[in-house]
Amino acid sequence: GVANTQWPMTEDDAHINYPSLAAVRLLTVLAQGSKQIAESIVEKATITLRFLVTSPDTACDNLKRRAYALQLETLKLVRVLACYGFIVPTLEDLQEPLMDWLRSVLGNDSSNMNCTIASTAIGLLEVLLYAAADPHKTVPAHAIDWHQPTAYLPAITAVLRCSRDRHQALYESALGYLGTWASHIALFPPEL
């Protein structure tokens, strides 16, 4: 499960109850089934947010891979819920981790895992752009403002520039975000 588990994974001890990656994956798959199912999962998803705000780098070496996988799967879960309009975390809560994920891929030494997490995070931001374009459809209503997901535009533009020839999925995620932003430009013209 994910409730009543210890995080971060700082000790490699079989007696410690760490979060289950399979449980988070199950929540993600279930949430994809219908809006009604997703709504019943929102509360459980809130428990998983700790996997986003605490870096997997704090995990002991033997559990780092699992910690990164939990973070990635949690991002996927939050994205699925956002597709239905359920805004689980506020972007203020995720600002530091989001910027860390985006910064991590700007250098030449970014790992595949960092690129995958950044790509998934950009996908979440793209979905949040759609939600922010019509905040009356979010739960709770007005849980997101247009300026929140667009605040990442400069960082995502930098990711787009540096990922062009290096990581196709990351490049495509950045293009998707920019395409979504541009499709709403008539409603929300940029401030000059």
In short:
The chain has helices at 21-33, 35-48, 50-53, 64-83, 91-103, 112-133, 147-150, 153-163, 168-183.
Give structural notes.
With 192 residues, the protein is mainly α. Helices cover 61% and strands 0% of the residues. Helix 2 packs antiparallel against helix 4. The longest helix has 22 residues. The mean pLDDT is 93.
Mean pLDDT rating = 93
Characterize the main sheet: none
Bulk shape: globular
Low-confidence spans: pLDDT under 50, at least 5 residues?
A: none
How much of the sequence lies in strands comes to under 5%
Give the ordered list of helices and strands: HHHHHHHHH
Number of helices: 9
Number of separate strands: 0
Layout of secondary structure:
Layout: H1 21-33, H2 35-48, H3 50-53, H4 64-83, H5 91-103, H6 112-133, H7 147-150, H8 153-163, H9 168-183
Helix pairs in contact: 1-2, 1-4, 2-4, 4-6, 6-9, 8-9
Q: What characteristics describe this protein?
A:
192 residues, mainly alpha, 9 helices, 61% helix, globular
